[in-house]
User: Fold this.
Amino acid sequence: MLIAFNKPFGVMCKFRPEPGRKTLADFIQVPDVYPAGRLDTDSEGLLLLTDDGALQARISSPRFKLAKVYWAQVEGIPAEDALARLRSGVDLGDFRTKPAAARLIDEPADLWPRDPPIRYRAKIPTSWIELTLREGKNRQVRRMTAKVGFPTLRLVRARIGQIGVDGLPPGKWREIDAALVATAQR
Assistant:
């Protein structure tokens, strides 16, 4: 079984109860499924869950190089040199990121409002970057954008391989064909 879930902001990527916090158990009552990878509590978007250990590894392990697409709303408007740094890999001190695809995009058309909304600052514009990674270290996108001078205000995982969050409202899930992962481009 493979489930695509649109994880809302503030939801923890675990099933065990956490007093005063929402977890996956508040949204998904399917027994024996586990997240294939994680999204930080303050990140939103596509999370895949499965009851198949091999499929979980195929989705989450960087050795399979499954593309993960993120939309990052950042403070400021990155110039081409900042995007080039993201594309070539960024030295984050404890590791250097692998090359990534990075481009400025318009705010995604079907993007849902975030609750709570991001902070608004009248004198500082925001923009959106689409980043495609084939690795996924802890808080990597946030650390990358901050390192090139554009802190992330909102982070949405839009796609994993061929599976996208489009048409899936926050807090909702649907079962999908696991073959979409097995046949994904490397």
In short: Residues 67-160 form a domain with the Alpha-Beta Plaits fold (CATH 3.30.70.1560). The chain has a mean pLDDT of 92.
